[in-house]
Amino acid sequence: MKKIRNMVSVLMIVLVAVLATGTVVERLRGSEYALSHVYSAWWFVALWALVALGMVFMLFKGKTWKRPVICALHLSILLILLGALLTMLTGQHGRMLLEPGKATHTFYEGNATENHPVELPFTLTLDRFETEMYEGTNKPKDFVSYLQVTDGEQHEDVVISMNHILRHKHYRFYQSDFDEKGNSILDVARDPWGIAITYMGYALLFLSLVVLLAVPSLRGGTTKQSISRKSLHAVTWSWLSVLVVLAILLHIRMLTHQLLPVLRSPFFSLHISTIVTSYALLFAIMVVGIIAIIKPKDKDRLERLKALSMAMLYPAVALLAIGIFIGAVWANVSWGNYWSWDPKEVWALITLLIYAAPLHEKLWQSFQKPVFYHVYGILAFLSVLITYFGVNLLLGGVHAY
């Protein structure tokens, strides 16, 4: 068991290092190069496979099936990884150009340097493309394609716009771009197996996290007796209240401000509010760590501060995980690809992995030592700073702002 635990530890460290390196490679060589040489490389897939196998072994040896919620949580991660693998192996992604009045049944799959045509079992005909503006301004509110789907003898008039896609025979079409000639450019995706498995993983992850947040006694760990159950509930529900208020405020902003078309989605307020609330909790954990290190006083005080920090860590990690998969669903609805290895996505994942480690203090017993835990919590916040600020200033990507 110890050898496997050490192996999993090494694999997780290597995985985090590779993910971080991949964002630097993307900055220096471009996204296509990083995707082909890192994120889609066979050795990267093998690394994830080894991590998954290690997780399965640890779950089996730890008899996790005796704790159904914890077992379901880790099973959801395995489902998400399986869905990602199926997407890579069986999914299709490409683009098609629609010219007004011209029936089209071909899209092009591949990258900027090499692509090949793929025939659709039906045709699309663009009637017209329109850019809708906010009233009294030149600011775009939405991009809309009015077209007709012809499938044999059947004809159907449809509308595609930002966050409003067309689904037909397992193909999904997304408003991607347009040109000055009035042509519409659509992203095309076909991924019936990967999306289905991934969404099953997301649903199971969400349900597991909600149960663990609602019933803190199911979490396990070695410090839960250092803080009362009433206090655990108070910490959890106070931060969830902050989340609800923040989500409502962001939704009001979405309704009252002239946002870019892609941001005009109900996922916007949910994604941002969960992520920001999580980061606020992680900041509080860092502050508690600094207080503990500066004024340690006695062991009991360190234990109490650690218990308080752990009480915040559970909702922080849960909200970060939920925020990430809400963003993934939003990306899939808007662009047809729920994970694009954008630097901010990758660093959010790195942050999640880093902060998930202390939750496994029964496996990695160093986290049971209050001083080690608090120092780790202080240093771990560097990943939040890189995710929130470093990506914007140094790494770029579609999330940079």
Describe how the helices and strands are arranged:
Layout: H1 2-29, H2 31-39, H3 42-61, H4 68-90, E1 92-98, E2 103-110, E3 115-133, E4 140-151, E5 154-161, E6 166-168, E7 171-178, E8 184-190, H5 192-214, H6 229-256, H7 266-294, H8 299-335, H9 343-356, H10 370-395
Report strand %. 15-25%
pLDDT average, as an integer?
A: 83
- Poorly predicted parts: none
Gyration radius, in Å: 23 Å
State the end-to-end distance.
Answer: 45 Å
Major sheet, described briefly?
8 strands, antiparallel
Q: How would you characterize the overall build of this protein?
A:
The chain is an alpha+beta fold. It folds into 2 domains: 94-190, no CATH class; 215-401, no CATH class. The protein is 59% helix and 18% strand. It has an 8-stranded antiparallel β-sheet with strand order 5-4-3-2-1-8-7-6. The chain is elongated. The protein starts with a helix and ends in a 6-residue tail after the last helix. The model has no long low-confidence stretch (mean pLDDT 83).
